[in-house]
């Protein structure tokens, strides 16, 4: 168990070593974690859901032609693959709606920021 935990921790630190960057504060670590989730984890989960769906279709239509038990198992795999797609796309859409509505990361106000002293407003 400890070896698996160490291997997992080292694998998450590999982007830091490969890019020769150091995590300077918690914000950099948070953005690194978000990048890992968006660029690695989400595509892997979509690929797994797709493979499960294709494997279920293969079992249903090719291997299950003569066996009802294999055909039923294939239908269940196809159903769970579609449920996985639906859940991932729904959560992805909700997150995009929330971030667009709340405007995370937008530090400026609707007018483009606060004017500085002595500067002209509305150029």
Class by alpha and beta content: mainly alpha
Q: How is the main sheet built?
A: none
How much is the radius of gyration in Å? Answer: 23 Å
List the helices and strands in order. Answer: HHH
Q: Which runs of at least 5 residues are low in confidence (pLDDT < 50)? A: none
Give the terminus-to-terminus CA distance: 62 Å
The proportion of strand residues reads under 5%
Integer average pLDDT: 76
Helices, by number, come to 3
Number of strands: 0
Q: Rough shape? A: flat
Number of domains: 1
Overall helicity: over 70%
Task: Give your account of this protein's structure.
- By secondary structure, the chain is mainly alpha-helical.
- The protein has one domain (15-102).
- It is 72% helix and 0% strand.
- The chain has three helices and no strands.
- α2 (26-61) runs antiparallel to α3.
- The longest helix has 36 residues, at 26-61.
Name some characteristics of this structure.
transmembrane; membrane; 123 residues
Quick rundown:
It holds the Pfam family T4SS_pilin. This protein has about 120 residues and is mainly α.
Task: Record the SSE blueprint.
Elements: H1 2-18, H2 26-61, H3 68-102
Helix pairs in contact: 2-3
């Amino acid at each position: 168990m400890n070896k698996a935990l160490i291997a997992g921790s080292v694998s998450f630190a590999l982007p830091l070593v490969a890019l020769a960057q150091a995590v300077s504060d918690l914000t950099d670590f948070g953005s690194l974690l978000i990048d890992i989730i968006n660029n690695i984890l989400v595509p892997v989960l979509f690929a797994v859901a797709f493979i499960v769906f294709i494997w279920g279709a293969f079992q249903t239509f090719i291997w299950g032609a003569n066996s009802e038990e294999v055909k039923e198992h294939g239908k269940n795999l196809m159903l769970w693959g579609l449920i996985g797609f639906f859940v991932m796309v729904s959560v992805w859409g909700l997150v995009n709606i929330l971030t667009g509505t709340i405007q995370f990361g937008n530090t400026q106000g609707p007018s483009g920021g606060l004017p500085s002293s002595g500067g002209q407003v509305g150029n």
